[in-house]
Amino acid sequence: MDKSSVQVFHYSSWNQESQNMENQDTAAVDAIKALGESTLEKATAKAKKTFDQFVNVSLNIAVTGKTGSGKSSFVNALRGLKDEDVGAALTGVTETTMVSTMYEHPGMQNVNIWDLPGIGTPNFKAKKYLKDVKFDTYDFFIILASERFTENDIMLAKEIRKQKKSFYFVRSKIDNDMSSEKKKKGFDKQKVLSIIREDCQKNLKDLGDPKVFLISSYDLEEYDFESLQNTLEDDLPEHKKYALLQAWPVCSAASLEKKIKMFERMIWAASLASAGVAVIPVPGLSAACDVGIVVLFLTRCYYAFGLDDRSLTRLSEKVNKPHLKDLAKSKFVTAIREKALIRLQASAALAAISTVEYLLSLLPGVGSAAAAGISFATTQYLLREGVNDLANTARVIRKEAGLASVH
Question: Which PROSITE patterns match (predicted)?
Fold first, then answer.
């Protein structure tokens, strides 16, 4: 790390809120501006709250629909799994979901996708169904159908709306429709999609013509999967968007770039959260916090960018290029995969910085300020390096897979 990477905050900028912004170091000023606050103390408090939301906010997605609509395959797709993978939701031609079943996202433990029982039973009552599946658990509902939406689907949507939550209609198994239609003379993909969409919307007039998303759980790059993501982002509260963006599978180059930008914006919050701990005079506490933040942050990047083994296997099989895994061998990817990321901070230079942090934090005033400055700069440096490394690796893999263009 070069010397410019380690910047020390002046005591005045840390300890005296009344000091002018021009008296603060560039790193401090940038951090304050990035978080929209007037002082470093306020920015640090906001950073801690923002970073805590980023890593801990929960998101519960309910997936429902009648038997055979493809609920379980959709749940698996959201989790980056194939139907036959260990831990995948069970699929089949008969109803395999008899009770609400929660599936944790493999890379985001605070994101849960719920496979709800089918709603096509003779005794179906929307209000009773929502009570039975514990309605209040979920942030929103995805209602799946592999053909037309039924009266039960509509009744359920109306009841969800009454109770002030969101629902989204997803027409699944579009790949099956396309496969069948391709055999016909004069096949026109866009015309077929328009016919399917219009047919689905015929039964939904009473709901104000809600949008219908056409998807294939086996080919997320196609059809409306990205459009569904964008719509959910627009509708969710800001803190819930963090969870959605981290957990949602990479379904296009634009989707990947959106994830990258989110992590880049969050570097300020993670770095300042680290700086707040550096002023506590406990041996090893600041260094441990730095490492913990770096590991957590970059591991989230690793899964969000689709660099884990399962995501790469799914992608390589889809494009029939087994060698894609061999491209995921950058220093950060390798360290995360081997659970050895902590070693990236074990160089002599960084070890020395950790020691200096502790010694400076024992000094009143200026010592605490200097310790905070060093912690901020080290963490920021490592996070920027890591995000860039992982992002570029993901871009290279998509390009090699023939999926590089932003659309």
Answer: G_IRG
Q: Please, are residues 105 and 131 in contact by the beta-carbon 8 Å criterion?
A: no
Whole domain around residue 272: which residue ranges? 3-34+252-400
pLDDT of residue 283: 60
DSSP track, 356-372: HHHHHHTSTTHHHHHHH
| Distance from C-alpha of 196 to C-alpha of 212, rounded to nearest angstrom | 10
CATH number of the domain bearing residue 231: 3.40.50.300
The DSSP code sequence of 49-94 is HHHHHHHH--EEEEEEESTTS-HHHHHHHHTT--TTSTTPPP--SS
Q: CA–CA separation, 40 vs 29, rounded Å? A: 8
Q: Is pLDDT larger for residue 132 or for residue 140?
A: 140
Give the Cα separation of 251 and 398 in Å (integer).
11
In the three-class reduction of DSSP (H, G, I as helix; E, B as strand; rest coil), residue 214 is classed as: strand
List the structure tokens of 110: 């605070």
pLDDT beyond 60 at 40: yes
The answer to whether residues 355 and 229 belong to one domain is: no
**What average pLDDT score do residues 193-219 get?**
88
Most confident range, picked from 67-71, 264-268, 360-364:
264-268
Sequence length of the chain is 407
CA distance 351 to 367: 18
What the block records as the tokens of 14 is 């840390």
Domain count for the chain: 2
- 258 and 368 together in one domain: yes
CA dist., res. 216 & res. 233, Å (int): 20
Residue 369, Cα to own-chain centre: how many angstroms?
34
Query: What is the amino acid identity at position 386?
Result: G
The pTM (predicted TM-score) of the whole model is: 0.78
Residue 155 and residue 176 in one domain: yes
First to last CA, the chain: 37
Considering the domain architecture, whether residues 296 and 240 belong to the same structural domain is answered as no
User: 211 and 120, same structural domain?
Assistant: yes
Residues 278, 203, single domain; the answer is no
